[in-house]
Structure formats: structure tokens, C-alpha cells
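Question: Send over one sample?
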Amino acid sequence: MTEMQDMTGGRELVMVSNRLPVDRVVASDGSTSWRTSPGGLVTAVAPIVEQLGCLWVGWVGAADEQLEPFEIGSMRLAPVELSEDDIEFYYEGFSNGTLWPLYHDVIARPDFHRVWWDRYRRVNQRFAERVAEQAARGAIVWVHDYQLQLVPAMLRELRPDLTIAFFLHIPFPPSRLFAQLPWRKSVVEGLLGADVIGFQQVTDAVAFRMTAERFTRVPALGNTIVVPGTADHPSRTVLAQEFPISIDAAAFAEVAARPEIQQRAREIRAELGNPKTVMLGVDRLDYTKGIRHRLKAFDELLGDGEIDPADIVFVQVASPSRERVDAYRQLRDEVELTVGRINGEHGSIGHAPLVYLHRGHTRDEMVALYLAADVLLVTPLRDGMNLVAKEYVACRADEQGVLVLSEFAGAADELRDALLVNPHDIEGLKAAIVRAAHMPREEQRRRMRSLRRTVYDNDVAHWATGYLGAVRAAAESQRPSQTGHRTEPIQVSTAFVPRSIDDRVRRLAALPQLIVASDFDGTLAPIVPRPQDARILPRARQALEVLRSAPDTYVAVLTGRSLEGLAETGLQSEGWIVSGSHGSELTGLDVGAVAGAGEAPPLGSPLTDEEHERLQRIARRFERVLGGEPGVRLERKPFGIAVHTRQVADSEQADELMAAAVELGLAAEMHVREGKQVREFSVRDSNKGSVLRSIRAALPNAPVLFLGDDVTDEDVFTSLGHDDLGIKVGDGATAAVERVPDPETATAVLALLAELRTGIIIGSE
């Protein structure tokens, strides 16, 4: 059994997509047959299907055609009938007139028509019913792409025995854009019917999880969304995670190595006049692909004299796409007009600097074009992945050629040694084209070698193994127990409490009164790139809840976040003492009982007029100086502003920007606190140590257990006494007497304390 077969656990695999992976071929005698179609989805999953076989459910591509299931190779195909109205309203309308532009950053204006939505819902129901009718019991159903986002939930109602996976091949929009969709909640609920939802990029997965929380109120814990149970259905979890799609790199390389393909590549260059440089663009004719921007840059370079039309030929392949849709017909007319003008102005008799091919090509012909091209331009305005970029790299065994790649293609996350461009920046795009045309061979070799290693290491088998592995794990979690009920997934924590800490925790657990305090980020919740995505570990939350309910036990969270920012993480802290903004905010304790430090205003009191004006002044200064710097994030807080440089790509630049922020803050007489890749500038001189002292003063005298990971937690560690226990989480110099490596181990400490103090067993992670 192959590795992929292992990933399905012997279950039938059912593929579901808008189109079946075949095209009809009509012979000269009128007979018909079927052949595999050349689409991107088919190219990506073909190796999987060849190994596993499958049932594939989809539309045959013609209106009002009724066909019984039939077989081609290892596939059994189950057609879904679509009428002319279905095609107009479901496919051309809602799928490509509403969802496509909405999901591609509203490059074109999406239209919202109720009749389109109604037909989309009805066609999705038809697909779900077809799958329910044809799929074997316990099968794994893999639903593909934006046309079928309601199918998972519909299918779950019809066939709860199935494991349902969904993969979105295009981007998922930010929540603020998705919010425009009148039927947003229904679409999210449709997707949440799946056990696993796959996305191309991390940003897509994060956007979906945030959107799901916003519009359906389901909690997201890391990459997992918890769907509450009902009277008819138990609660369950949905994995929403990125699985970047790829290609069968070895298969493309094999085609590229064939002598006849290499000969065809030489013929192509000869047909083009053997120019010094051949540039290539390969796209569907779609407004998201940046073809107009690419042509504008090429036109201006010719006009500026930066490139010589006698030396360079640009071949643009634009395969036909959705030609019944007005926006696509208009795009075709505009592109063809531009091509004619460029050739008319810069061409000569017998030579055109721009060759435009508006037709599809076989894979063999495409590979020959890849080999003939010195430069490949992949410059979409927004793209889920773009496999053309990976195909070009896979074919270049000579380690020559230059890939110019849009930052807004999913492939840019992996192919970092391409020349990355912002396609909206025409000057930047022109500069990249010129650089690509004149790149030294050694630099080409270095870049292409790195690109090829990336593509081969992350090929389609790697993608499928990771994705199907996650799906199989979901299938295993559904396996009925001997009692006939579905078993819940079992997660085992590998964290353990060091012996020295174990002994001290046992002593604390036996004391009559106890204060349990902790930082949040990096302690109760793992550090994540985007602060709003942080979530408290479930076991940590359970342990703190148990401790809060124990007699004479007080739970406190001391965080540099504002209380509003902490609430955005979904933390449920009723009955806890919570201090935010490094001690400037406080809730869960009588504010009147807690004095401020020295001459400072009482803890939790509002800003004075002078403080408000000072804060506004520094905020304006930071925005002016740092607001436009890539990777810098300015976070407003009730009593200050934090400057984050965690996402600045270059470490030296991050240090320089932070130094500039400190200079500005000190000049404005702000109090500066240092954290990990963050500085907070506050109008009040409070810290976690001072607020803990004030909290202790308002509570019965009791020892403290405190866990923290950041530099700002050192103010607490230095304030602790002989009977207290301070535990540093992670690396770094510290005044704490004990240390654990990560939040999972910190959680194990809290769980041990809760179990010893109450006798209640805290579940594993």
C-alpha cells in the first residue's frame, strides 16, 4: 500500500468539484470519447487519483445533459446536471460575479443578487445529494473550491458517516471584505460542516478563523474551531489550516528532459527570431492575473528605450476563460487592443515584440515554452497559489531562467528567491523586468537552484500527504466506539513538571490561602505572529477555573495587553483579577481598595486631560514616522502606545526602527517598557510588579505563584519573597528561581497545582 493509501486508511476517496476532470472529444465520424482536462485542479490532484482511484462528482460542462456514472482509468465519474439557468445564475453569477471578485480583494466590484444566491444554494444541495447517493459508507469526501462552499454542511446532514474535507484553491478574503456578503453567515456555516478546511496561505486560514468567530460565534483555539453541539449532533472540532498546494515536480522535469520537447523549445526560439531574451506570461484571461499591468510595464520599457524590441520578445499566453461573462469579454477586447497598439508602435515588418496567444496549450507545448523562456512573468494582483510559477521552476534543470513573481501570489510565500514585485507598482515592475533580462548566469543559477529545491521538497505528494494525513486523523476521531458512540479525539500532553518545581508546587497546594498569577502571551497562550490570534491553552483555562473555584484561592492575570485587547482573544475571566496595560488597568477587584504607586493616580482611574493630550501627541508622532514602515505595528492602549517590530523582516532594520521609537518616546517624556520585539510607551509609570504589590495589599496575606515569559515580568519576579514561587517561561536572563521551557509546561504546572489543591483531574492537552 502506498503512503497516500495509508493516508486514507483504506476508505473510498470521493472528489467533488464544479467540473469533472474530463473534456468530451468528438471524432470526425461523430463518435465521442472523454479525455483528462488540463485544468489546474486536475494537474494538482492527478497523481493522487492515479494512485488511489476515486469517485469524482461534478458537472460535465454542457447544459441540460443527463449522464449515468461512467469510468475513465481509475476514476468513476458521477455527473451532476446543470441547466442553462444554473450556469447563468450559480456559476457565471454567484460563483464568478459575486464570490470570485470578493475573494480577490474586490479588484472588480462584486454583484450581490438574491436570485444568484438562491440558485447557488440549490445547486450546492444537488451536488450534496449526488455525493450522498454515490459515496460508500465511511468514505472520505474531498470538496473543492468556492463554487461548493455549502456542500460540507449539507452533506453532513445527509450522511453523518462521512469524513468531509474542503479545500479552497483561491484566497479567502479578510473579514472586513467578507462582511460585504449578505449571506456571509450561511457560507461560513456551510464550510464548518467539514472536518478539515484547507487553505493556500496562513493569512487565508487566519482570516477564515477570525471570520468564523465573528459571524457564527464559534471559538477558535489555534488552528481548531470548536463547533458547539445540538440536541441532534454532538460538539465537534474543525481543523482550519493552510496546506499550500503544489505540483508533481518530477513529472514536469521528466517531460522537460525529453529530446523532442527540448527540440520544440529550440524551434519556438527560432520562430520568434532567436532573440537575445524571451519573456513569457502564462495565465487564464482574468482580471486578477495582472495582464494589463504587465503589458503597461512592457509598453513603457519599449517607449523609454530601456529594452530593444529587436532583442526581446514577450510571449503572452492567455487561455480563454468565462467568455460568456461581460467583464471577461471586456478584458479580452482591451488586451487585444493593447497588443495591437504595442506591436504597431514598436514592431517592424517580419518582427513583433509581443506575441499574444489566446488559446489553450497541451502540457508538452507548455513545457517547451517554459524551456524556451529566459524570464517568466507571474504578476497576478491576487492569486491563491499560481502553479505556473512552480511548473517553470520544475522544468529548469539547467538552473537558468528568472522568475518574476507577484508578492500577492500564494507561491511567493515559498519561492522567496524569485524577483518579488508589487504588480501595482509599474516602476517597480519595470525595474524587475530589466533586472531579469540582464541577470548574470551565476545569479540565475543560485536563485534557480534554491527555487527548485523548494519545489521538489514541497511537491504535490508532500501536499497531499499532509492534507490527507489531517483528514485521516479526523476520520479516525469519528470511528465509533464499542458502545456505538463517536469517540472524541484523544490528545496527550507531552509536557511534564520538573522535579524541583513539583516539590514546591506541592507545598504551595497545601497552604490555607494562595494567589495564582500569570502573564498571558507566551505563558498561558503561545506566542503567535498576530496578537489577536492568541488563545489561552484549553488546559490552562480549565486549571485556572478550577483554582478560582477553590476556597481561599485567588487567580490573577497580569498582562501588557489592554483589557480590550485581552478580551479580543476570547478569554473568559469572570471571577478573575485581571490587570492590563502593565498595571494601568484593573478589573475583578475593588479599585477603591487598591492604591496607586507613589503620587500616581489610583489604579484603573481614567486619563487626566494632560495625560490624554500627551498620549495623542506621541501617537501622532509615531504614526507619522513609523506608520508606513513594513512590518511595524502600532498598538493603541488606554494609557499608552506599543511599537511592535516582530514582523519586520530584517533584524538590523527592526533594531534601528525600535531605537528611533525609543528616541521619540523619551523626547515626549513617556515611560518606556521593554518587551520581546516591542516597546510600550505609557503616560503612567506603572508595572506588573507594582500592581501585584497593590493586589496583595487588598487581599488576605497569601503566598504567590507567578509565571511569566517577558522582560516586563521581571518586575514581578524581583518583588517576590521567600515563600513565593516565580517561574520563568522560556529563555532569557531572569530573577525567577525556576524555569520551564514553554507554555505547555507552564500549563502542566497549573494543572498539577489545581489537581493537588482540589482533587479535580485536569484533562490533557
About this structure: The first strand starts at residue 13 and ends at 19. The first helix runs from residue 3 to 8. DSSP finds 25 helices and 29 strands in the chain. The two ends are 33 Å apart (CA to CA).
